[in-house]
Design brief:
heterodimer, A: 324 residues, alpha/beta, Rossmann fold, 2 domains, globular, B: alpha/beta, TIM Barrel, 13 helices, 18 strands
Chain lengths: 324, 438
């Protein structure tokens, strides 16, 4: 920060209410904290001309991407976010690394930390691994997806996108459609949206949508056509074939017939419905090309907002004065 | 013989004697001569000369505990536990006899393997070790092991636990065949296809955390099969540890029809719920898994009313390097021998769910009866295997202080009441508590 000319220092004040050093999940954040993240992301978005230019607030800091699971978009998005803030990045992925040589992921993370990093961004197939790292490491930990548990920056970028179109989340009806059982994006959206006052509908076949969601206070639906006319936003989740041991529905053909968002279904939807997807999208399974590329789709805006949200998260965590 | 031990004469007096095998539950005194209980409440005039006195005022005096399934891990997994270290842990937990499971490497499916464990145990810490032989050759669930030869070598029961017997016909054949030895078969009930490699109870917590769930029906269906096969064959069957309301319901129903089956439960399933997994800490990855509070309450009632006969420690030691991993990679398991009695006292006795007599029955008398081994009693003429417990001593669980090689405990850092002060085997003090720094 000190390298900046004060006259060109962007006008962004640190929100003093922000105390967290880790971003592990959205379930444990308050509505106020989520709002701070979204507001900060919005500011960064305008400060950087839609995330295209730099705002070097964190020069000299280093962000380590520690990905134990494949990722292209999230990893690059975090890298770009760090670079837009002037920070350095170091990349680590499990293929060909020490994990393949039998090292535990905690030891791997400690090794990377010892190289002098300020944030560890981690993705792992097992729920709770970022929580474990946050107890083992001294630096900030950001969860970039832990199995089917949570993916906080994805949830935030979805909410930021909705907010940009609708001004507010409160009072909207948002349906999450598809493979809820294996989806961390679903869980992040469920917690984030409900905290900000949206009505969340969880939709998919019973083999992928547990009835226990009802016990937790959410609406569960199995027929997309029944709920579609009520929805302000649809978030179409990919079928995660790689996480399923046994196929939870008879065929992709049948799934697409029941759940794919296509031109026919669009006719039953509200005129201003937003169509979202966390990607990668499976064209022809959960969404047809005419919808994915149509006027209601905000899929590419989501990607751009991802950088803004991750800049906000890195900056807030770096500046937090821990209260506990 | 290089030494002739002095004939010991010990009077344990003023203690709260608890012996469900004789319905004793009162202040009393116990005379031990040469390692054998020779009198209950003898008058001073009846004491032999030079009798030592041990004042057990404010302490519970009970038969040593008996465990139906401790993993001692030797041979093959000495990084987790050895017969020596597991034996010490057992003594510290108040156990005088343990049955050790067959899942070693090589597994205990041959008379030689039984002999190995028995010899090692004879030279080790002093707890009485009884051997569970494999039910199937190589524990592969296909062909019966040589049960008769294992019995001749000293095996007291047969089981492939912690793996369930996946093959219905094999279990039926084994229950039938074992009738000629009058030995029990233990099954840890679980249908593998339904368990589907789940790692925690399939409930709301697993749903929120995105963890692979172990559904209750995986256990319920296996219990249903097990008890039905016991009924069909008339074989001696013990199911456990069980952890579900469905299992309790099934066991209660078959017992009410007069079918002789027995069942056990682990202390962690009586004390803790799956809420603990919110920390994502692998020390809560135990088997059977921690379940929701409704299951915990049902199990507490079932073990209090006798539907479940036995509380077994569920000691599944795993080394620190294995447990200090994420929830997927960490194996199921925990060291429980040293906390079982105190957790039963804290969560069941002090809360009024059961009294000491019931607790000692579930921890000592019933398991000895089910295994068909000596112990579980303070009857005159029996070996003086007994424990002295300070029921009000508070201590905080710290796995790093365990005598077990495993330091992982789901109760770690919890405060428990009740401490084993002494464990006597045949009248000899095999364990005496250090003053615990608090």
């Amino acid at each position: 920060m000190s390298s900046l000319n004060p006259e060109t220092t962007p006008p962004i004040d640190f929100p003093q209410q922000w105390k967290r050093r880790h971003l592990l999940d959205l379930e444990s954040l308050s509505a106020e904290e989520i709002t701070i993240l979204l507001d900060t992301a919005q500011k960064f978005k305008s400060l950087t001309n839609n995330c295209k230019t730099k705002v070097p607030l964190l020069t000299g800091k280093t962000c380590a991407n520690l990905f134990f699971e494949n990722s292209t978009r999230t990893r690059n998005s975090f890298s770009l976010a760090a670079k837009r803030l002037g920070a350095d990045t170091v990349e680590f992925s499990s293929s060909g690394s020490s994990v393949a040589k039998g090292e535990t992921f905690v030891d791997t993370a400690k090794t990377i930390e010892a190289m002098g990093v300020d944030w560890v961004v981690t993705r792992h197939s097992t729920p709770g691994t970022p929580h474990l790292l946050s107890r083992e490491l001294g630096c900030s930990v950001l969860n970039a997806g832990d199995g089917p548990h949570d993916h906080p920056t994805q949830g935030l970028l979805d909410m930021l996108t909705i907010r940009q179109h609708r001004g507010s989340i409160e009072g909207l009806t948002v349906a999450l459609v598809g493979d809820i059982a294996h989806s961390r994006t679903a869980r992040s959206n469920i917690w984030g949206l409900s905290k900000l006052g949206a009505h969340v509908i969880i939709c998919g076949p019973p083999t992928l949508v547990s009835p226990r969601w009802t016990e937790l206070g959410f609406e569960v639906a199995h027929h997309l056509d029944d709920i579609l006319p009520r929805c302000d936003v649809l978030n179409l989740l990919r079928i995660q074939f790689e996480r399923q041991k046994a196929r939870p529905f008879p065929s992709v053909h049948e799934y697409a017939a029941l759940y794919a968002m296509n031109g026919e279904r669009m006719k039953k939807a509200k005129e201003d419905i937003l169509i979202m997807a966390p990607g990668p999208i499976n064209r022809g399974v959960e969404i047809t090309p005419e919808v994915a590329d149509g006027p209601h789709s905000v899929i590419l805006e989501q990607v751009n907002n991802g950088i803004a949200v991750r800049m906000a998260a890195l900056w807030l965590l770096a500046g937090a004065q821990p209260s506990n | 013989m290089n030494q002739e031990p002095c004939p010991s004469r010990l009077l344990v007096e003023n203690g709260h004697l608890v012996d469900p095998s004789q319905q004793i539950d009162r202040i009393g005194r116990l005379l031990i001569v040469d390692g054998v209980i020779t009198a209950i409440d003898p008058s001073d005039g009846d004491l032999p000369a030079e009798t030592e006195r041990l004042d057990a005022k404010n302490h519970v005096v009970a038969p040593g505990l008996v465990d139906l399934g401790v993993e001692l891990r030797e041979p093959g997994f000495e990084e987790d536990e050895t017969i020596q270290s597991g034996g010490l842990a057992a003594l510290a937990g108040g156990y005088s006899s343990v049955l050790c499971t067959s899942n070693t490497a090589p597994c205990i499916d041959s008379p030689g393997a039984v002999e190995f464990v028995r010899q090692k145990a004879a030279r080790a810490a002093g707890v009485r070790v009884h051997v569970i032989g494999c039910l199937s050759k190589n524990r592969d669930g296909e062909q019966m092991a040589e049960l008769g030869l294992l019995a001749e070598a000293g095996a007291v029961a047969f089981s492939d636990a912690p793996r369930s017997v996946p093959n219905d016909a094999l279990l039926k054949r084994a229950l039938d065949y074992c009738r000629m030895f009058n030995l029990p078969i233990f099954d840890r009930p679980e249908v593998p296809d339904l368990a589907n490699q789940g790692i925690v109870h399939d409930g709301k917590t697993a749903l929120i955390l995105g963890l692979k769930g172990l559904p209750t029906e995986a256990e319920d269906l296996a219990v249903a099969r097990d008890v039905r096969l016991a009924e069909a064959t008339g074989g001696r069957l013990h199911v456990g540890p069980v952890s579900t309301m469905g299992a309790v319901d099934m066991i209660r129903r078959v017992k009410s029809r007069g079918i002789e089956v027995s069942a056990s439960v682990c202390p962690h399933n009586l004390c803790l719920s799956d809420q603990e997994l919110r920390s994502f800490d692998a020390r809560f990855k135990v088997h059977p898994p921690l379940r929701s509070e409704r299951h915990v309450e049902t199990l507490q009632q079932a073990v209090a009313d006798g539907t479940i006969d036995v509380i077994q420690s569920g000691h599944m030691p795993r080394s620190r390097e294995k447990k200090m991993n994420d929830l997927d990679l960490s194996p199921f398991g925990a060291a429980t021998l040293e906390t079982t009695l105190a957790s039963v006292n804290t969560y069941l006795i002090q809360t009024g769910i059961m009294d000491w007599s019931t607790a000692i029955d579930r921890l000592s008398t019933a398991p000895a009866r089910i295994a068909g081994i000596p112990g579980g009693t303070l009857q005159i003429g029996s070996d003086a295997d007994l424990i002295i417990i300070d029921p009000n001593k508070k201590w905080t669980v710290n796995g790093n202080q365990f005598l077990s090689r495993c330091n992982s405990s789901p109760l770690d850092s919890k405060e428990l009441s009740g401490q084993v002060i002494m464990t006597l085997i045949a009248g000899e003090t095999k364990y005496q508590a250090q003053a615990v720094p608090n």
